[in-house]
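Open question from group meeting: does this chain pack into something compact, or does most of it stay loose? Before anyone orders reagents, we agreed to write out a predicted structure and look at it together. Recording both the input and the output here so the notebook holds the full record.
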Amino acid sequence: MACRVWISAVGLITEDTARDFEVFAKDNNVQGATLVLDSPGGAVHAALQLGRAIRGFDMTTTVGKTIVLPSDDGVPRAELSPDTSCESMCAFLLLGGTRRYVPPEAHVLVHMIWLGDRAEHAQEASYTARELGLVQRDIGRIARYTVEMGGGIELLETALRVPPWEPLYALGPDEIHRLRLTTLDRLFDGDIGPVAAQPAPRATPAFAPSDALATVAATRGGND
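Structure tokens returned:
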């Protein structure tokens, strides 16, 4: 039986994310593994730290959603769907992969970084000079990381054109390729798409509790 193996990372990136992933990596073999992202983004520092950890493990990153399927024989089953989003700092986390794949059905959306507790009322809020300095420092860190990971610096420029009071900007297929968010023509030997037309892949999930990535699951899929 041929198997497809991936790790699903779902949910908000918080300050605990990188630490939770480190714990997960100690208990699971993540070297060279495929990491499937489904995240609205989150904390800047945690995303950059996690991105560097992903690169250190020589992982492949992609955008997708793991869907657990019903099973009549007691064997856990799942399929990988590309119809999901990677938003805000998730786009930069995607760059952490040594190899990267964004399927055509997936959505990568960006906007400028902001002070998290004032993002919803950014225009009405007041800011100290120190807080503005912190934002500038973080922009510099993201720029350095983007270049370090081999991404196009235009990714950051594009994000900085979209203030938090406007809808997130969805990158088009040409932009995704130009910014080097995708470097592969396909994820597996076959498509990333749902395998409903084929025998459902078998899955053996392993979960790591986290407030940052709500689900970190090692999923094994294969066709009989």
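Observations to bring back to the group:
The two ends are 5 Å apart (CA to CA).
The CA atoms of residues 86 and 108 lie 5 Å apart.
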